Amino acid sequence: MYLKNDQKQIHAMSAFANFRVAAVALAVVAVALTGCGDGKKSDKASQTAAKVNKEEITVHQINYVLQRQQGLKPEQAEAASKQVLERLIDQELAVQKAQELKLDRDPRVVQQIEAAKREIISRAYVERIGESVAKPSNEEISKYYNEKPALFKDRRIYSLQEVSIEAKPEQFEQIRGKLQTAKSMAEFAEFLKANDFKFTGNQAVRAAEQLPLAGLDAIARMKDGDSAVTQTPTGLTVLFLVGSRSQPVDEARAKPAIEAFLLNQRKGEQVQKDIKALRDAAKVEYVGKFGEGAAGAASAPAASAAPAAVTAPAEAPASAGGLNAADISKGMGLK
């Protein structure tokens, strides 16, 4: 429910982060080229960082690894590149030994390589589609800002407690009744224990953008001390708003996150549209047991057929500094 991570969040890379990655890569190249003269031999040597038996590890390989390390500062590039090189040497030694043992011909390994290759190629296609999508206008950004007051103008920091209760439908009324009369979360928990209800509790402090976007408006309407009940397949989930404090975000500060979110949203829509067109033009034939009921489900994979062009970020704590596109997209949930 509200306190669980949403694994479908969209991750938007900021322009500053891209600039930092480029700066790191340039710093590594600069270090590698230091002291090298002109000529083809020196150019080739400048790209070689180490030789492992008969194989070479290049500066390009080091740069590729560094570009995937978020938060690395340019001044840290030289030290980081040396650490990466040592890991690449270990990796190369392992690869050489695996090839000696013919593990690269193992059917399971071949299958994994092919699966990774297909994922990389399809991801590249999705990213190519996204490159053609136009950025949102200032008017569209302002419109989104004004339509989401709970995220921006009326943004709050919430202290929440959640109780997941295992119960049968005939027990719901009893639980709801006690919830109405209980003066505190502790009193309600004691009632659950006394009546042998199995339950788990969770609590956290989260900003508005770190809550599931679909449920944010309902939470924003709650006052301190209020509770909300949601039915689940195994019983009920009770959400308590212990307290909250106002912490609004102005449009200027929210603009980069909104722009990134809307852009990623457009990219996702364009990818789904493109994949649907490919499906409509292709001949897809389901065989064997997969052919049973395939006609009804044929359109369902279209929305999920495209691989994710970006990965989900790690959970971040609430901060006065505010927002990022991943938070806005679907909320990071509470843990």
Kindly describe this structure.
The protein starts with 14 loop residues before the first helix and ends in a 5-residue tail after the last helix. The chain is of the alpha+beta class. It has a four-stranded antiparallel sheet with strand order 4-3-6-5, with helices on one face. Strands 1-2 form a two-stranded antiparallel sheet. Helices cover 49% and strands 14% of the residues. Helix 3 (59-67) packs across helix 4 (77-100). Mean pLDDT is 80; it is low at 5-37, 301-324 and 327-335. Among the domains are: 15-105, no CATH class; 156-246, Chitinase A, domain 3, CATH 3.10.50.40. A hairpin with a 2-residue loop joins strand 5 and strand 6. The protein has helices at residues 15-33, 40-46, 59-67, 77-100, 107-131, 138-147, 172-181, 185-194, 213-220, 251-281, 294-297, 325-330, and strands at 48-52, 55-58, 156-166, 198-207, 227-232, 235-246.
Number of helices: 12
The fraction of residues in strands falls at 5-15%
- Topology order in helix (H) and strand (E) letters: HHEEHHHHEHHEHEEHHH
Helix content: 40-55%
Distance between the termini: 11 Å
Characteristics of this structure?
Chitinase A, domain 3; 6 strands; disordered C terminus; two-stranded antiparallel sheet; isomerase; 4-stranded antiparallel beta sheet; 12 helices; chaperone; PPIase_PpiC; Trigger_fact/SurA_dom_sf; alpha+beta; 335 residues
